[in-house]
Amino acid sequence: MATNASRAAARLMISPAVVLLLGWMLVPLGLTLYFSFLRYNLITPGANPFIGWENYYWFLTDPSFKAAMINTLLLVGGVLLITVIGGTMMALLLDQPMWGQGVIRIMVIAPFFVMPTVSGLVWKNMFMNPVNGIFGHLALGLGMEPLSFFSEIPLLSIIFIVSWQWLPFATLILLTALQSLDQEQLEAAEMDGATWVSRFIHVMLPHLARAITVVILIQTIFLLSIFAEILVTTNGGPGTSTTNLTYLIYVSSLLQFDVGMGSAGGVIAIILANIVAIFLMRMIGKNLDA
Q1: Per the domain annotation, does 32 fall within a domain?
Q2: pLDDT score at 53
Q3: Which of 26, 106, 152, 287 has its CB surrounded by the most CB atoms within 10 Å?
Q4: How many domains does the chain have?
């Protein structure tokens, strides 16, 4: 009886937090669904007739939608490739004993705490500016023509900036997993004559499989909504070369004042994000069961 009373009291105490969280999620989602079925344009306030699936049709047939989807996939895939491979290499390096190891680890992790807007502006003005940027001065010093990053390779530049931000996260997760590896396995493999490459492939990499899965799952969720870095560097251009799905929704809602079509885009983005999450969980989530 006492146990049941304790459980009831615990549920009663956490119920306000649960209700608040449900409201925090369900109210915006409900309003987004509601607006997606209206012709809701801020230029013509008050005239918001119900138009059914028309907003979804126009959003999906927008010429920018295909480019936005391709850019989103390239952005997510490129950042994951760089951060997983680079994070593994950085974790292997930081796992070695060295002088000032604690300070070096803090410096490696520091970029993860830089705000996306600040990161984009720093890379745009201090490093990638072809006239005043560091890379431009280095190119001139080597007798080469400075590269205009955001004009010639805009999407690759965005991928590089976002990878720089997320590389510390991948490094931290993989380094933690690497430090939990039983050193006796490595010593036994070394005594059996296995090379470093063999030890890495057959001992270290299988041990890092779960950590790599966590990195991929968490980063994919956040990378699907990359926005600030694009806004402060390229504004989705040139043309639509750096417009991803999130930025396309921003253009529809706040630049074209079409809240209805922007809401439809938001619903589509939620559906696509859930499809990607389910696909990832089915493909690589089995590594989390161990």
Answers
A1: no
A2: 92
A3: 287
A4: 1
| Per-residue pLDDT at 288 | 56
Kindly report the pTM of this predicted structure: 0.88
Which residue range(s) make up the domain with 257?
Answer: 37-289
What pLDDT digit, counting tens, does each position of 48-57 carry?
888 889 999 9
Compute the mean pLDDT over every residue in the chain, rounded to the nearest whole number: 87
Give the type of residue at 114: V
Residues 6+ apart with CB under 8 A from 132: 125
The pLDDT tens digits of the residues spanning 100-157 come to 777 877 888 888 888 999 999 999 999 999 988 999 999 999 988 989 999 999 999 9
Q: Which two tokens stand for residue 61?
A: 């047939």
Tell me the mean pLDDT in the region 12-29: 86
Contact 181, 261 (CB under 8 A): no
Specify the CATH number for the domain of residue 67. Answer: 1.10.3720.10
